[in-house]
Amino acid sequence: MQNRVKVAFAILLILIFAIAAWFLLQPREPQYQGRSLSSWLDEYNRAGTWDVEPASTAIRAMGTNCLPFLFAHIKHNPSRLTVKLIVLASKQRFLRLPFYGTERYRSASIVALRALGPQASPLCPELLDLTKNPDAFWWANMSLLAIGTNSIPFLELACQNTNRAGSEAVLMIAKLKTQPPPHFSWGSTKALLNGKPVLGLGYAVSSEEVAEIANMLEHPSPAVRRASADALARYTHPAYTNALKSAVPLLIKACGDTNDTVRTSAATTLKLIAPGAATRAGIK
């Protein structure tokens, strides 16, 4: 029992020093009506939704001054040691810890980008660079989606990523072209340490979006065409059957593309979703 108490106190001290140091090193946040940016982001956390107009009004009033802070939240990836300490601390019941843990403002910051809309466009180059990070590309693509149609050229460039980041970028483009905002779903989770609500974001994929991905097999950019072929392979659920049927002729055409990577991806996807059509087309 005494050993457990000592471990709990040691973890608490480490967290206190780490969080205190973090706060001391942070530049001063912009404010609106006497409240800091973080305070307004917590409005999204408490509401568990993107539609919190007092907070969105505050974000728009603070404008581009928010961008460096929002980007810092979005790109932040805690170290493995920090994550392990937080998980360990969450399991103890001796002390009520006042801290959230990780990713307190990540989803809320993306919603803030949605509130800023075109005002957030200056962040697109940095978000594009973040799509190359295997631990952060999902958040980067979601952030570009939140900014709106101004981000489409950057999402097209993100298709150059040959891992899942590229196929995710294609999906974001399809959402922007086919669906009205906000484009994502939301809900609340509980912070590991203090149990307080934290906004969480996600998305559903519609058959219309899958059909739009198929249309992008004829995009001028080879990277977009290749990423589109890769993305279609992810949607083999029966809900997308009709959309995939319409994609088959485009995939067959893409198998004769002038770009090697497009041909390879198109053939792989075609054989997966329509093996009979691939055989008839002579795709081996």
Summarize the structure.
The protein is mainly alpha-helical. The protein has 15 helices and four strands.
Q: What would you report as the Rg, rounded to the nearest angstrom?
A: 22 Å
Strand order of the largest sheet: 1-2
Order of helices and strands: HEEHHHHHHHHHEEHHHHH
Strand content: 5-15%
Oligomer description: single chain
Pick out the low-confidence regions: none
Overall shape: it is elongated
**What's the mean pLDDT score?**
85
Number-wise, the strands total: 4
Tally of DSSP helical segments: 15
What's the structural domain tally? Answer: 2
N- to C-terminal distance: 65 Å
Could you give a short account of the major beta sheet? Answer: 2 strands, antiparallel
Instruction: State the helical fraction.
Output: 55-70%
Structural class computed from helices and strand pairing: mainly alpha
Describe the structure.
With 284 residues, this protein is mainly alpha-helical. It folds into two domains: 33-74 and 98-204, no CATH class; 209-284, Leucine-rich Repeat Variant (Alpha Horseshoe). Helix content is 60%, strand content 6%. It contains 15 helices and four strands. It has helices spanning 2-25, 37-47, 53-62, 67-75, 80-91, 106-116, 124-130, 137-147, 152-158, 164-178, 207-215, 222-232, 241-254, 260-273, 275-280, and strands at residues 31-32, 35-36, 185-190, 197-202. The termini are far apart.
Which tags fit this structure?
Leucine-rich Repeat Variant, two-stranded antiparallel sheet, 15 helices, 284 residues, 4 strands, 2 domains
